[in-house]
Amino acid sequence: MSGEVGEDTVRQGTDEAAAASGGASGTTGADGATSVRDGGGVRSLAELEREVTARRRGPAYGEDALITCDRLVRIFTADGVEVQALQGLDLLVGKGELMALVGASGSGKSTLLNILAGLDVPTAGAASVGGYDLLTMDAGSRLRYRRDVVGFVWQQTARNLLPYLTAAQNVILPMQLAGRRGGFRAKRQRAARATELLDMLGVGYCHDRSPGQMSGGEQQRAAIAVALANNPSVILADEPTGELDSATGEQVFASFRTANEELGTTVVVVTHDHAVANAVRRTVAIRDGRTASEVVRHTEVDEHGQESVVAREYATVDRAGRLQLPRDYTDALDIRTRVLLELESDHIGVWPDRPGEAKPEQRD
Ligand SMILES: Nc1ncnc2c1ncn2[C@@H]1O[C@H](COP(=O)(O)OP(=O)(O)OP(=O)(O)O)[C@@H](O)[C@H]1O
Q1: What are the recorded GO MF terms, alphabetically (predicted)?
Q2: How far apart are CA 239 and CA 272, in angstroms?
Q3: What is the ipTM of this complex?
Q4: Is residue 6 assigned to a domain?
Q5: Does residue 109 line the site of ligand 1, with CB under 6 A?
Q6: At the N or C end, where does the chain have fewer CB atoms within 10 A?
Q7: For the residues of 234-272, what is the DSSP string, one character each?
């Protein structure tokens, strides 16, 4: 959907001193005090140092987020050829969010989800979920992480449930595997939780049915109950409605919403399903292994008390300050390799580079 701009990017720069000085030039006065000239006037080096220190003391990237991906890279090597599935992806997901990841085939969505699920390890960058560092955790922590922190729902209904167990037995299984000791009482509690989860997701009537006796939608809703069994912080779902018709898909999505609203579980769904992508508050688009844009929706009430959902699309700015301009914008202005930038008090102007044309500030 988008093209990259200006030496392919619009770069704010991450080096703190450079950021603070804004690419300024420095001079040393007769008194030996160094000053720096930038667009906003002359600042002393001491002032710049104070700014840099203030930045350092600010909250760390992703400090409050449940999921943090910081310049995440995943390179696969197949037959001697390297594929960069993730190319420095940044993403923050807050606790209790219900959000969707979208993107063209091959953009890196499943790779990201597998990393977040603890099934795959990134090549570089940083990623953490609920305080677990996904790059450095040892085998024991990885096991605990996959058992207690994340639940997973796959697209293929057959992959989510064991065919020879009933829906209730499927939900009980992860609780048993969690290995918490306990006698008859624990057994009764596990059974009660399975019943409660299946009821909550609207498939209580499938309690004693095996997957073969359930529809695809019922199986996916039971799969969500399985994913919730050990009360994870987050559920990850890869195309959970991909094999279903739209009406059934809506029912399955409603179950994710129920889990999110009733239990406060954070839900991240990879989807090509527009109905799902449009039903969540936040939809993040991945392109070429990076987050490219996102749509945020909120409810507005007009003067008659009528509620409507308003969607706003944002371009994402990564940690290095890169931003991808939508391709229809770059096409419309024939922007190819570089742009002129103009910093205004409340926005940044982006101008096509047309040699011979007046500079932006001279155009009005
Ligand atoms: N195990 C692997 N070995 C080699 N290349 C891989 C592997 N897994 C993924 N890739 C490659 O990484 C890139 C991203 O793949 P990924 O499956 O994450 O994309 P996706 O966005 O989920 O696509 P789709 O929507 O089709 O599922 C693709 O080019 C893919 O071919």
Answers
A1: ATP binding; ATP hydrolysis activity; DNA binding; transmembrane transporter activity
A2: 7
A3: 0.97
A4: no
A5: yes
A6: C
A7: EEEEESTTTTS-HHHHHHHHHHHHHHHHHH--EEEEE--
Q: Confirm whether 30 is domain-assigned.
A: no
pLDDT tens digit sequence for 222-271: 999 999 999 999 999 999 988 888 889 899 999 999 999 999 999 999 99
**C-alpha 25 to ligand 1 mean position (Å):** 45
In a domain, 260, yes or no: yes
Nearest ligand 1 atom to the CA of 77 is: 4
Residue 102 lies in a domain: yes
- Identify the sign of the CA torsion 281, 287, 290, 293: negative
Decide whether any atom of ligand 1 lies within 6 Å of the 78 Cβ.
yes
* pTM given for the model: 0.80
| Segment 106-155, tens digit of pLDDT | 999 999 999 999 999 999 999 999 989 999 999 989 999 999 999 999 98
**Ligand 1 pocket member 306 (CB < 6 A):** no
With the CA atoms of 326, 329, 334 and 340 taken in that order, what torsion angle do they form, in degrees rounded to the nearest 10?
-80
Ligand 1 proximity of 68 Cβ (cutoff 6 Å): no
- What's the CATH code of the domain at 147? 3.40.50.300
| Range of the structural domain that residue 212 is part of | 65-315
